[in-house]
Amino acid sequence: MRKAIDSPFSPGSDTVPQVWAGRSAQLSDWRDHVRPRRIAGIHERGRTILGEAGLGKSSLVRRIARSAAESGDWVTPQLRIPSGTDPLKRVAAALLVLAEQAGLAASREKKIAQLLKRVEAVALAGASVSLRRASGPEPYTELTNLLIEIGRAAILHGDVMVMIHVDEIQNISDEDVLSQLLTAFGDALTHEEPVTAPGGVQFDRALPLAVYLTGLPEFLDMAGARKGATFARRFQTTTLAPLGDDDLFAALQPFVTEGWEIAAGDAGSERVFMEPSAQRAIVDLTCGEPFLFQLAGERAWYADTGTIITADHVMIGWRGARDEAEGHVQRILERLPDRERQFLESMAALDPEDRTLTTIAQHMGYGKGTEAGPVSQRLDRQRGIITRGKPYTFRHRAVEAYLTTDWPDLS
Ligand SMILES: Nc1ncnc2c1ncn2[C@@H]1O[C@H](COP(=O)(O)OP(=O)(O)O)[C@@H](O)[C@H]1O
Ligand SMILES: [Mg+2]
Q1: Which ligand is closest in space to the CA of residue 59?
Q2: What are 33-76's pLDDT values in tens digits?
Q3: Count of Cβ atoms closer than 10 Å to residue 180 Cβ
Q4: Distance 168 CA to ligand 1 centre (A)
Q5: 3 state DSSP class of 56
Q6: Which CATH class is domain 4-13+243-332?
Q7: In the 8-state DSSP scheme, what is residue 134?
Q8: What is the reported pLDDT for 227?
């Protein structure tokens, strides 16, 4: 019997979902690229992962962080920055915990003890700490210094990475503070640490340090405004696309082939299966959205107590999820500047083969196609909602489904 509490689906909750789909490029980037290179002392940029709400940015980096922690790395929790707060405080506090893990707190070096004291002051007062202090380095420089010390400790320890995850970075609205935070990370990432190889040869190496930033695409405007070139040299930015149907399909395949194991009290364990038609239905309704995938799965699970999830259960469940699914897409559209939303609506109103810049611009009431150029460029390059091919197509499949079909209504 399947009970609500046994559902492995987790819409909205801030954990790594048990039913995981895709993102293999990003997972392998960490496993095969960032981690081994940095551990070997080779420079590798920080990573910025952006995308519209619900695309799985936080979950992705949480998953990377979890696997890092499992292999013994020193990892901060997801440092979510609430709007209007000082991120330096948050990061300082997290670095103090890493310093503890790195054994720095026990260090008898006076220099380190003093550094920890100064970072404690930053954790309390944030960027404003310098106002109350006549001299000494800027607060963000203290963060760099502590990061370097933690990195040194990691080198001495051997085979361990330091990993930092700052989430909701678009909430850092103070341009100076953002610039300070990016500089603190960037300086630590590019730091050259002199070391001596076993044979006595001296060389400079990078610290075993990785920085992941996640947030909404608007962040690019903020980071790009003044610090554009420096930021790009220090961070590699990816805009997440929706999940592919093949990945979603594969994620549900264990339900179909061997069943999903759930605890069954004294009786040991039991398995919940899924009909292939139910698997297909969930994938179709999801439109590539990780959040909707969890939602559709959860509602199908809740729709009945039997050990087989059927296509009927998916449909019954979806009826209850319909408003939430619609709200999810509406929130994405509502957040867009008027002209970007109008662009999408005009694009949706045209037949797929007529979706060229000129025709869309005409539909929007512009004289020339080029007038809509910047808007279309943002929707493509920055937000990843459309692809400017010949013709233009939607990359965000739930936005497309919402604007061009009856979805989320069942036909
Ligand atoms: N790769 C994935 N496979 C399956 N579900 C996912 C995946 N990534 C995220 N999710 C689910 O999608 C929802 C939104 O994920 P989240 O990471 O909070 O998105 P974002 O941070 O981009 O807003 C969560 O319910 C999460 O469990
Ligand atoms: Mg998030």
Answers
A1: 1
A2: 999 999 999 999 999 999 999 999 999 999 999 999 999 999 99
A3: 21
A4: 14
A5: coil
A6: mainly alpha
A7: S
A8: 60
Whose structure tokens read 């361990």? 160
Q: Residue 156: CB partners within 8 Å, gap ≥ 6?
A: none
Rounded to the nearest angstrom, the distance between the alpha carbon of 276 and the centre of ligand 2 is 31
Fold of 336-404: Arc Repressor Mutant, subunit A (1.10.10)
Are 408 and 285 in contact by the 8 Å Cβ rule? The answer is yes
pLDDT at residue 220, rounded to an integer: 84
Beta-bridge partners for 47: 212, 236
Ligand 1, atom 8: closest residue by C-alpha: 56
In this structure, which amino acid lies at residue 4? A
First to last CA, the chain: 30
19 CA closest ligand 1 atom index:
4
Residue whose CB lies within 8 A of the most ligand 1 atoms, among 13, 27, 59, 332, for a mutation test: 59
Task: Give the pocket of ligand 1 (CB within 6 Å).
Answer: 10-12, 17, 20-23, 51, 53-59, 290-291, 293-294
CATH of the structural domain 24-239, one choice from 3.40.50.300, 3.40.640.10, 3.30.200.20, 3.40.50.1480: 3.40.50.300
> Up-side HSE of residue 400: CA atoms within 13 Å toward CB?
20
CA distances from residue 374 to 39, 299, 300 in whole angstroms, order as listed: 41, 40, 42
> Phi then psi for 325, rounded to 5 degrees?
-65, -45
Unique residue bearing structure tokens 């026990």: 106
Q: Which residues of the chain have pLDDT under 50?
A: none
**How many Å separate Cα 211 from the centre of its chain?**
12
Distance between Cα 170 and ligand 2 center (Å): 11
Amino acid identity, residue 60? L
Q: 359 in helix, strand or coil?
A: helix
Q: What is the pLDDT of residue 175?
A: 84
- Strand segments, DSSP code E, in 106-180 are 162-167
Query: Ligand 1, from 291, 324, 328: best to mutate by most atoms within 8 Å of Cβ?
Result: 291
Closest listed ligand to the CA of 53: 1
- Ligand 1 atom at shortest distance from the alpha carbon of 14: 18
Q: Report which bound ligand comes closest to the CA of 170.
A: 2
